[in-house]
Amino acid sequence: MAEKRASAPRQSETPVRETAVDLTGPVEDYLKAIYDIERDQQAAATNEIAQRLQIAPASVSGMVRRLAEQGLLEYERYKGVKLTAAGRRAALRTIRRHRVIEAYLVQALGYSWDVVHEEAERLEHAASDDLIDRMATAIGEPSTDPHGAPIPTRDGRVDERRHRRLSELRPGQRALVTRVGDEDPELLRYLASLGLLPNATVTLDERAPFEGPLTIRVEQARYQVGTALAERVLVELLPD
Ligand SMILES: [Zn+2]
Q1: How far is the CA of 116 from the centre of ligand 1 (A)?
Q2: What interhelical angle do 46-53 and 25-40 show, nearest 10?
Q3: Is 173 helix (H, G, I), strand (E, B) or coil?
Q4: What is this structure's pTM?
Q5: What is the pLDDT of residues 145-156, one digit of tens each?
Q6: In angstroms, what is the span from residue 189 Cα to ligand 1's centroid?
Q7: In this structure, which residues have their CB less than 5 angstroms from ion ligand 1?
Q8: Which end of the chain has fewer CB atoms within 10 angstroms, the N or the C?
Q9: Measured in angstroms, how far is the CA atom of residue 93 from the centroid of ligand 1?
Q10: CATH superfamily for domain 164-237
Q11: Which CA distances in Å does 150 have to 22, 46, 63, 101?
């Protein structure tokens, strides 16, 4: 029984939460990918979006045009696309859902941190904002997910401070692990075996030349790790 709304007076601009209600899963994935790329550089090129989403560049162009028509992004000449305010809001909503789900699975259901990303990738498109808010409340409104990524607030604010990579530390520098990549379960299990978790203290002892291994100390234990691993661990420098 469809409600007859045609004659009802047109609502004024819908509040923030409702602007993106009808976005499909693929659209949400595009906005999330563009948001991510934009954080590292000024605009997202079609090729980078394609790479991130693992699809052909040709299909990206079509989708990008549609998203621009919907007012979710705009073209930057010679550079690529940028999210509009509405696009950014929609991206942050999806990111909030993803990260709250990960946190809930770990904190409330006892999942291990290496398996929640896959679940969240699927559920982020299905869960309602109300469900997400209740999940967040149930676990005490965490500010980060299990991998240390900041959880956007209900009204779309997010801590966007940039952190340096463990690979960028100089020998002798001590730092707090703030965040690790969440997509590779094997990496997460390995990091856990080294104790390289958010809030762990890590010191760079030595760096072998020519991108050789880094010798690090995690709490009291010493390990050698490759640069590729150290690039995926974000840290905040601690005072000497
Ligand atoms: Zn994730």
Answers
A1: 7
A2: 120
A3: coil
A4: 0.85
A5: 999 999 999 999
A6: 14
A7: 117, 182
A8: N
A9: 14
A10: Ferrous iron transport protein A (FeoA) (2.30.30.90)
A11: 25, 26, 28, 13
